[in-house]
Amino acid sequence: MSNYTERTNDIVRAVHLLRKRGVTVGFPMQTPNGEVIFSVGKGFTLTAEQILELLERGELNAEGVRRVCPPAA
Asked: 10 Å Cβ neighbour count for 65?
């Protein structure tokens, strides 16, 4: 996703839903190449795009997060 500003409200809504479902979500960070990432749960890092994909698939929960990415080392 090249333009996060178009989907800002969706990203905010998704983060709030994750938190409401008991999943810890850190503040957004930006990588040197411009990608927006979030620390999610214990040891996971997801991009804003991955979070939006989970929202669209209806898998915005701890299990969905575990399926999307392996834990960070």
From this structure: 20
pTM of the model: 0.84
What ranges do the domains of the chain cover? 4-68
Instruction: Render the burial of 27-42: b for 16+ CB within 10 Å, e for the rest.
Output: eeeeeeeeebbbbbbe
pLDDT in tens, 11-69: 999 999 999 999 999 999 999 999 999 999 888 999 999 999 999 999 999 899 988 87
Q: Which two tokens stand for residue 44?
A: 């996971």
SS3 37: strand
Describe the crossing of helices 8-20 and 48-57 by its angle, rounded to 10 degrees. 70
Single-letter amino acid code for the residue at 40: V
